[in-house]
């Protein structure tokens, strides 16, 4: 999962060469929805959830946005299990920056046993 302001397309080239070494692995690069990001003056951009501040002491988190993203990723996992006939313990969720936070939250809160989180 990509970081703030990026898209799944931004990460696909990074894995192009790796695919040759892992032909049995399917990579899926989802895209966050475009939404206003408070930290960036309300500018709309691809974001998994809103970011209000970088102040870690008085941080307010977009819990609803995070829960929506977790639900979306779980839907993607369900689709993959149904279409590919994979068991969930063969699925890894991974991300960068904001996407990494969501990959970890998804993995930690999943009702399914996943292969891992990166």
TrEMBL record:
Q: Where is the Phospholipase/carboxylesterase/thioesterase domain positioned along the sequence? A: 1-118
Q: Which reaction does it catalyse?
A: S-hexadecanoyl-L-cysteinyl-[protein] + H2O = L-cysteinyl-[protein] + hexadecanoate + H(+)
Identify a single GO molecular function assigned to this protein. carboxylic ester hydrolase activity
What keywords appear on the UniProt entry?
Hydrolase
User: Which E.C. number(s) belong to this protein?
Assistant: 3.1.2.22
Entry's Gene Ontology cellular component terms: cytoplasm
The task this protein performs is described as: Hydrolyzes fatty acids from S-acylated cysteine residues in proteins with a strong preference for palmitoylated G-alpha proteins over other acyl substrates. Mediates the deacylation of G-alpha proteins such as GPA1 in vivo, but has weak or no activity toward palmitoylated Ras proteins. Has weak lysophospholipase activity in vitro; however such activity may not exist in vivo.
Descriptive protein name = Acyl-protein thioesterase 1
- Provide the species name: Dispira parvispora
């Amino acid at each position: 999962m990509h970081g703030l302001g990026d898209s799944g397309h931004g990460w696909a080239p990074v894995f192009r060469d790796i695919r040759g070494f892992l032909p049995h692995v399917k990579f899926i690069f989802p895209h966050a929805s475009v939404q206003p990001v408070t930290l960036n003056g309300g500018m709309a951009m691809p974001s998994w959830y809103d970011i209000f501040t970088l102040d870690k002491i008085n941080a307010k988190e977009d819990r609803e946005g995070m829960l929506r993203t977790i639900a979306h990723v779980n839907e993607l996992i369900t689709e993959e299990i149904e279409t590919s006939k994979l068991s969930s313990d063969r699925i890894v969720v991974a991300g960068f920056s904001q996407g990494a936070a969501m990959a970890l939250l998804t993995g930690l809160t999943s009702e399914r046993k996943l292969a891992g989180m990166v």
